[in-house]
Amino acid sequence: MVQNKISWLDVAQAELERANKNKQPKQLAKAAKLMSDAMPYNAEFAFQAGSALIFSKQSAQAIRYLSRSLKHKPNYINAMLAMAHANAELKNLKQAKHWLLEVKKINPKNKVVADNLNELEKALNANK
């Protein structure tokens, strides 16, 4: 009789998929963090954890994972946009603007930047 071995990575991936399917933001964030922490050099897992944390209203923690993602993949536009989102959620509007401008340097016609930069600048000017 041959037993199939199941790795912890398979279990974590299954948990991630189940949480995503069942639309459970906190479980999704927990599973995504586990994957990223287990494989800290993987930019995709770090981005996934950061995105899940934003979705579950944990933007301060998200920044840690998104920073890790950008450390390993510096021009990762989706991670930069997520950094802008997380910072905006935390009312760090200058940082949010910084990340939108970084994306604009790489992709001047990025729709997310075009849709959000003017509103962000208005909010910054209103706070002066």
Please provide a written account of the structure.
The protein has 128 residues and is mostly helical. The protein is built from seven helices and no strands. Helix 4 runs antiparallel to helix 5 (77-89) and helix 6 packs antiparallel against helix 7. The longest helix has 16 residues, at 111-126. The N and C termini lie far apart (72 Å).
Provide the descriptors you would attach to this structure in a database record.
single chain; 128 residues; mainly alpha; 77% helix; elongated
Report the major sheet: none
The succession of helices and strands, N to C, reads HHHHHHH
Determine the number of helices (DSSP H or I, runs of at least 4 residues).
7
Structural class: mainly alpha
Strand residue content: under 5%
Helix content: over 70%
The count of DSSP E runs of length 2 or more, i.e. the number of strands, is: 0
For the residues shown, what is the average pLDDT? 89
Question: What general form does the structure show?
Answer: elongated
- First CA to last CA: what distance? 72 Å
Radius of gyration: 17 Å
Which regions contain 5 or more consecutive residues with pLDDT less than 50?
Answer: none
